[in-house]
Amino acid sequence: MNPTGASGVFAREFDGLGRAVEVGFAGGRVISVSFPAEIPADARPDHELLDRIGAYVRGERDEFAEVAVGLTVPTDRRDVLEALRTVPYGEEVSVSRLTRLAALDADDPDDLRLVRTALDENPIPILLPDHRVQGGPYTTPGEVRDALRRVEGL
Length: 154
Known about the structure:
Layout: E1 8-14, E2 19-26, E3 29-34, H1 48-57, H2 75-85, E4 93-94, H3 95-101, H4 109-120, E5 133-134, H5 142-151
Parallel strand pairs: 4-5
Antiparallel strand pairs: 1-2, 2-3
Helix pairs in contact: 2-4, 3-4
């Protein structure tokens, strides 16, 4: 387990995804989630969040809402990703709708570009669920995104 405030890299393979999930922590906050083909040699397998992700992949509803994240992205992208985090389990939104959720103008090409950039550079997929956005772009790889969408009935 990862004590509060600890840092490190944790990873575990999940059959339902066909990939490993790697989670990076700094100061007890999640700073990255990725989906490597193989578990990195320096990653530890035991962490409560990986247990929860495993249960989620097996169909247990989890919003991960209280999981502390550490976003190190520009403020405008942070606003988009924080809006993305509010999209409920089992629901999907369009890029235009996400733009409005982030208090941006869905008719402004610059605002739409900002939202697409934030999605494309999302450092914490699953916790910031880009798989719930119709028409992406996505940080989550296609086969993982499809699996997550199936889990949530999308």
